[in-house]
Amino acid sequence: MKRIVLLRHGESLWNRENRFTGWTDVDLTDEGVREAEAAGELLHKEGFVFDKAYTSYLKRAVHTLDHVLRVLDADWIPVEKSWRLNEKHYGALQGLDKRETARRYGDEQVKRWRRSYNVAPEPLSDFDNRNPRFDKRYAGVPESLLPVTESLRDTVARAMPYWDCVIFPELVRCDTLLVVAHGNSLRGIVKRLKNISDDEIVELNLPTAVPYVFEFDRRLDLVRDYFLGDADRIARSMAAVAAQGKTE
Questions:
Q1: Mind giving me the DSSP string for 28-70?
Q2: pTM above the 0.85 mark?
Q3: pLDDT per residue over 16-29, tens digit each?
Q4: Which of 81, 188, 192, 240 lies in the 20 to 30 Å Cα band around 204?
Q5: At how many degrees (to 10) do helices 30-45 and 59-71 cross?
Q6: Distance between CA 115 and CA 94 in Å, rounded?
């Protein structure tokens, strides 16, 4: 049996403040650190031993992975980072409070920006200091590939070449991989693995720091998928994610 575990980062500072984060590089809260450590403890309890890990360029994912590997005593395994695993870029919405934005534009418009498959927020200007072309971590990425806003479709199109060409082929020689990333980049991976439609994928809400396990046979066909942890708590966490962009 081969396995890939997907893990959304723990609670970040802007998760707690209910702000659109996107590519803004905010860190974990103390609760986010506890969530990451709890995920590591759960993976240890269930006997997971990872051969390699992948994460984004954003510290909330990188630090979640660090805490998980420390708890697993697996700091030594190879880790590969890619900008392609970054969160969806929320353009000019980045930094805005989600509920205040919903009060201004309405719940349905905010849901379209957050969850629709092909609607992107207003882009950043070329001279906005939040534009990733000014960030040294992306200096090696062609400027034409750097987003200034994204729909979920754009995020999936950005992440899938990395999944198809780097992560998934690694299962040929490895038994268990860990991918720590973000709600929308991981949503693209789940969409591919489970063949979920464009309309259905927007309703998937991934909770923070809950391991999502995918098991494959030796031909790399998906056998089953499941979340690790208490089902009721996971359901509450998913509902909380879904409610973030509502006025009440």
A1: B-HHHHHHHHHHHHHHHHTT---SEEEE-SSHHHHHHHHHHHH
A2: yes
A3: 999 999 999 999 99
A4: 81
A5: 40
A6: 15
